[in-house]
Design brief:
With about 190 residues, the protein is an all-alpha fold. The chain has 8 helices and no strands. The termini are far apart.
């Protein structure tokens, strides 16, 4: 599979220690979290999903050890409406649906990578994040989110974890503000 993840980042993930790999996926999930949480909070019947999402992203930041229940969390996540298949080839066309689905996919890959230690799962996590940011760039003139994501992914595997969490939080907020701006008038 061809991936959007930069070759040097993919190579670094394949030779990284487990802690670096877990940092990388935690940072990807953190950057996507505001999109899921911000767009689903307050939605009827989704409080448990939002709480689960927030707890899972928070727990991913304990990069010194894998989550003992990562596989169970993936099973829970796969029951989210964003990942349940209707059996039809229904295309998600609304802004909220697109970005919440990508957010859930990123968290799924992050949990898989955290639990398995698989560099391929980590690359898939980064790929899903970059795909979402590429779509956002296509819909917002001059956005540059995909380039920003490439930089942050490189930072996450650089061996210097300083500032990764803060940069990921700020990037996530910026993405949420941009997507929220695209939903004005479509959420009512």
């Amino acid at each position: 599979m061809e991936t959007l993840v930069e070759p040097d980042v993919a190579t670094a993930l394949r030779s990284a220690n487990a802690e670096t790999l877990r940092l990388y996926v935690a940072a990807c999930a953190e950057r996507m979290a505001p999109l899921f949480v911000g767009l689903r909070v307050g939605e009827e019947g989704r409080k448990g999903d939002v709480d689960f999402y927030v707890e899972s992203v928070r727990d991913l930041w304990h990069v010194d050890r894998p989550l003992c229940d990562a596989a169970e969390r993936v099973r829970v996540l796969e029951r989210f409406p964003e990942l349940r298949s209707t059996g039809d080839d229904v295309e998600i066309a609304d802004v909220v649906g697109i970005y919440t689905t990508f957010s859930v996919l990123v968290l799924r890959w992050a949990l898989l990578a955290n639990g398995s230690g698989s560099p391929d799962d980590a690359v898939s996590c980064g790929h899903a994040t970059l795909t979402a940011m590429g779509m956002l760039d296509q819909n917002v003139v001059g956005a540059g989110f995909r380039a920003q994501e490439h930089r942050l992914q490189s930072l996450s595997v650089s061996g210097d974890a300083a500032g990764v969490w803060e940069a990921s939080i700020e990037a996530g907020r910026e993405r949420f503000r941009t997507v929220l701006g695209r939903t004005v008038g479509s959420l009512g």
